[in-house]
Amino acid sequence: MAGNKLNELQLNDLNRDGFLILPELFSENEIEILNEKMPHLWAQDTEANIREKNSGEIRMAMALHQRDEQFSKLVYHSKLINPAYQIRPEPLYVQQVKVNNKTPFSDDVWQWHRDFGNHNVNDGIRRPLALNIHVYLDDVNQFNGPICFIPGSHLTENREVASHEMFFDDQTTSYAVWAVDEAVIGNQVNKAQKLNPDHGIVAAMGKKGTALIFFDTTIHCSPANFSPWKRSVFSMILNPVSNAYGNTDRPDYLHHKDLTPVEPLGGDLLNI
Q: What CATH architecture is 18-243?
C-alpha cells in the first residue's frame, strides 16, 4: 500500500476473496494511544455500550468518533478513507463506528452472517455497497476470537442476499443478527475449497495496527475467545450517500444519520 492507496494486487485480492488484510497499517505507538482511551469509554454509562449476554462485560462500544477526539481522527484517517474511495468512488458517509471487544475467556460469538442482511432489514439499505473497515487494537491470533471469512462468499448472484439464506437469531448472543444457516455455510465453504483446498475458511489474524477491509456480502463470523488475551477491534462502516438508510427506527449510535461525505485527513494518530 503506497501513498495510502491500494495497489492493483491488493484490489484484485479484495475483489476475489471479499476481504483484504493490511498488516500493521498503524504503528504500535498509534494503537497504544487508542487503547489508553478505552477504559474511560468502557466505564461510561450509555446505551451505546452494549454488554455481553452472560458476563456483563462490554461487547461493543458504539459511536466512538462522537465520544472521543482520537477515534474521530482515526475515522477520517487517509489510510482508511483513501482506499475506501478507491473501492467506492462516490461520496461516502459514516454509517457506524464501534470497537468490538472480546474479553479473555469470553464465550460470546458472532454467528455466521453477511452484514448486508442486517443493513437491509434493519435500516432499509437497498444495495450491498457498504464497506467494513477494521483496525486491530490487539494482536489477533487463532485463539482469541479472530474474524473468520469464507473467501469468495460475497459473489452471490447480482451481489444480493437471498431472503431464504437468512434467519433472525436473537438467542445466541446479546446482539441479534440476521444470520446465515448451516446449509449455506457448507455450500459456500465447498465452493471456496474448489478454488483453494486450504482456504475454505480463513481466520484474519494479525498484529495490532493491522487493518482489514471487507464487503457487505462477505460471509464471516468470529468464535469465542478461549485465551487469556483480550481482543479489541475498531470497526467502521462506510456507505455511499446514494445508498443511504431507508428508515430511521434505530438509534443514531447504531446507524448514523449524518450523510456528510467523509474527507481524508493525513498524518499519524500521534500528531495528526
A: Sandwich (2.60)
